[in-house]
Amino acid sequence: MGILLSKETRVVVQGITGNEGTFWTERMLAAGTNIAGGVTPGKGGTQVHGVPVYNTVQEVVEKHGAEASVIFVPPPFAKDATFEALEAGLKLIVLLVDGLPVQDALEVRTYAREVGAYVIGPNNPGMATIGEAMLGFIPVWLSYVYQPGNIGVIARSGSLINEVCSHIVAAGMGISTCIGLGGDPVPGTTLTEVLALFQQDEHTQGVVIIGEVGGSMEEDAADFMKVGGFTKPAVAFIAGRSAPPGKKMGHAGAIMTLGRGSVQSKESALSAAGVKIAQRPSEVGRLLKDIV
């Protein structure tokens, strides 16, 4: 068990007939994901790995009761694809695209909040409830990296999810749900929003936050913790210790401005909220064992 996604969740793959959609659909199916149908306009009536393809998301909702979507669509069409999923009533959308314009991201986030849906991403690896389902690019088949358990993982960096989860498993623990929020300036879902979900999840007993330089999500999360919004044990690792102020580092959102966003300010805020701070990913497992 975990948050948002389970083996029962009926999923639509938007862009299923493209190279990436086809490749990752096979791996999502192998991970246990309940893929109800795929969508590519003009390709309705075909199949991909045994999954029926339709022309619209609404068709998959009407015929199969779809509840969630994972979107393999290029940047120019990603906003429209996301709006189509939201307008069809889906409440969980994993938006993987890199290069989504900021204005598009703002419109997606605003509309998702209006209709009470979660958009995970953009510019992220996806999410997985380990042992149940995966949406995106999470390599859950690597048993030395991913084992089911009771630790929630939230990350802005996709590659660091794998490294940190491997240290959690090496310490004898496992993961409930891991979520990649993405590194863009306007995320569809914030760290604070995911912490609130993990707070409500009885199966999750602790959380690891994988942050990075830039933005204020980690400081905002610390404020949320200080007022009792999240009370479970937590460990954080913040990447970008050597990043110079005022310079973008890799991710579009990784830039320090207005006195916030540095590794030091994030670590100080989280530490003051009771979070244990790892100086390197390899310390995460040991710190978790001390507090969970």
Describe this protein's structure.
InterPro entries: CoA-bd, CoA_lig_alpha, NAD(P)-bd_dom_sf, SUCC_ACL_C, Succinyl-CoA_synth-like. GO terms for molecular function: nucleotide binding; succinate-CoA ligase (ADP-forming) activity; succinate-CoA ligase (GDP-forming) activity. One of its GO terms (biological process) is tricarboxylic acid cycle. With 292 residues, this protein is an alpha/beta fold. The protein has 2 domains: 1-123, NAD(P)-binding Rossmann-like Domain (Rossmann fold, 3-Layer(aba) Sandwich), CATH 3.40.50.720; 142-292, Rossmann fold, CATH 3.40.50.261. The chain contains 9 helices and 14 strands. It has helices at 19-30, 57-64, 75-87, 102-114, 158-170, 191-200, 217-226, 263-272, 284-291; strands spanning 10-14, 34-39, 47-48, 51-54, 68-71, 92-95, 118-120, 126-129, 133-136, 148-155, 175-180, 206-212, 234-239, 276-278. The strands form 2 sheets. The chain has a 7-stranded mixed sheet with strand order 3-4-2-1-5-6-7, with helices on both faces. Strand 5 (68-71), helix 3 (75-87) and strand 6 form a beta-alpha-beta unit. The two termini are 18 Å apart. The mean pLDDT is 94.
Number of strand elements:
14
Q: Give the quaternary arrangement of the chains.
A: single chain
Which CATH class of the largest domain applies here? Alpha Beta
Q: Which structural class fits the helix and strand makeup?
A: alpha/beta
- Alpha carbon gap, first and last residue: 18 Å
GO biological process, one term: tricarboxylic acid cycle
Protein name: Succinyl-CoA ligase [ADP-forming] subunit alpha
Family: Belongs to the succinate/malate CoA ligase alpha subunit family.
InterPro entries: CoA-bd, CoA_lig_alpha, NAD(P)-bd_dom_sf, SUCC_ACL_C, Succinyl-CoA_synth-like
